[in-house]
Design goal:
alpha/beta; Rossmann fold; about 260 residues; 6-stranded mixed beta sheet; binds adenosine-5'-triphosphate; 4-stranded antiparallel beta sheet; 12 strands; single chain; ABC_transporter-like_ATP-bd; about 25% strand
């Protein structure tokens, strides 16, 4: 169980600020969805929470400052699945997911029976058992995406930061993955922060949404509050209708222009 408190977080690269003064609180077992157009700073915000990019401001996990944690302790409390991970070509799926256990392995760096059990369970949950011995480059894009999530889940952290976890997944596997993350938060109190481009899914799974535009928070609240046609049209420069699913949740539908655009 881990509560996350972000206050006044700004971050950037080589002196250029791309995330400005973001504050957000996520209670233990909560799910915050970070949305926003391309380049608005979503990935950078996640990296700043992890301390991977230059930043100012504060991130507390259960009241402890993340910047004060040793690398190993940080990796025990924050699990991260990046959007574009570097995948070591020579590793099998099992070896790669075992890397997620590194913060827990003993001084000699040998994996224990518990580590292997955790990996087997995570592979099973993500429907990867059949591929356990395959080399990473032989996986399809969606299978690779699930292996990246498997590695983060194997870390068994109280907080999961997932950057576009459904990229490249078909709708069934995307739902399966988000359902699994949702189960973890209900069963184990895992606190979740995801970036998602699929706004309908973001609204269906996250309890609260934070909309970034040019690095600043432009809307924050429940999916019903944030996913309005006016707000989305303004910040995404898009034509949007917000429909309702049978359960009343917002369905964000792009609307095609009446006149086809002519090529110049
Ligand atoms: N390593 C880097 N060095 C310099 N600039 C960077 C770096 N990574 C990202 N940026 C810039 O920071 C800004 C925010 O990028 P970021 O990846 O956080 O956006 P995003 O909202 O996650 O985008 P997308 O939806 O396209 O994935 C962009 O202008 C991007 O070009």
């Amino acid at each position: 169980m881990s509560a996350v408190e972000i206050s006044g977080l700004s971050a950037g690269y080589r002196g250029r600020t791309v995330v400005s003064d973001v504050s957000a609180g996520i209670e233990s077992g909560g799910w915050l969805g970070v949305i926003g157009p391309n380049g608005s700073g979503k990935s950078t915000l996640l990296k700043a929470v992890l301390g991977l990019v230059e930043h100012t401001g504060r991130v507390l996990v259960d009241g402890r400052a993340v910047t004060g944690l040793r690398h190993r302790d940080r990796a025990r409390s924050l699990g991260y699945a990046p959007q574009l991970p570097q995948l070591p070509v020579g590793l099998t799926v099992t070896d790669y997911v075992l890397l997620g256990r590194t913060p827990h392995t003993g001084l000699l760096g040998r994996e224990s029976g518990t580590d292997l059990d955790v990996v087997a369970e995570v592979l099973h949950r993500l429907d990867l058992t059949r591929m356990a011995d395959r080399k990473l480059p032989t996986l399809s894009g969606g299978e690779r995406q699930r292996a990246v999530l498997a590695r983060a889940l194997a870390q068994r952290t109280g907080v999961l930061l997932l950057d576009e976890p459904t990229t490249g997944l078909d709708v069934g596997h995307a739902q399966e993955l988000l359902d699994l993350v949702d189960r973890l938060r209900h069963e184990q109190g895992t606190t979740v922060v995801t970036t998602l481009h699929d706004l309908t899914m973001a609204g269906q799974y996250a309890e609260r949404l934070l909309l970034l535009d040019q690095g600043a928070v432009t809307a924050e609240g429940t999916p019903e509050e944030v996913l309005t046609a006016d707000t989305l049209e303004e910040h995404y420069t898009a034509r949007i209708s917000v429909l309702r699913a049978p359960d009343g949740s917002p369905v964000v539908a792009p609307v095609r222009a009446a006149e086809p655009r002519r090529r110049a």
